[in-house]
Write a structure and sequence with these properties.
Shape: rod-shaped
Distance between the termini: 137 Å
Number of helices: 2
Strand content: under 5%
Number of strands: 0
Structural class: mainly alpha
Largest sheet: none
Radius of gyration: 41 Å
Length: about 100
């Protein structure tokens, strides 16, 4: 009976040890996935500098484009003013020509 009790105790401990090892293995795999996700989410300093310089260049180009568009709009408004004055002069000529008949 004594040897049987020892064997059953060893079997129970072996089963418990296997269960704990399986749980530990699952936790290690979860931790590995978490570390991989963190590595993917964070960039190195060099990558960050490269990306920030690219964003800065793109921002500078966008600023230049907006400035050109603003200048073109201002020139267009001046042109619209000239066209409006020319249209008014033509209308005045047409009125005076119609009144002179």
């Amino acid at each position: 009976f004594y040897l049987r009790a020892i064997r059953e105790t060893q079997q129970a401990r072996g089963t418990e040890t296997m269960r704990r090892l399986d749980a530990l293995e699952g936790r290690v795999m979860t931790m590995e996935r978490t570390v991989e996700d963190l590595a993917r989410d964070y960039t190195t300093k060099e990558e960050w500098l490269r990306e920030s310089m690219l964003a800065r260049r793109q921002l500078e180009r966008l600023t230049e484009m907006v400035a050109r568009m603003q200048a073109q709009l201002e020139d267009g408004q001046g042109l619209i003013g000239h066209l409006a004055r020319a249209t008014e002069a033509m209308l005045e000529l047409a009125r005076s020509g119609a009144a002179g008949r």
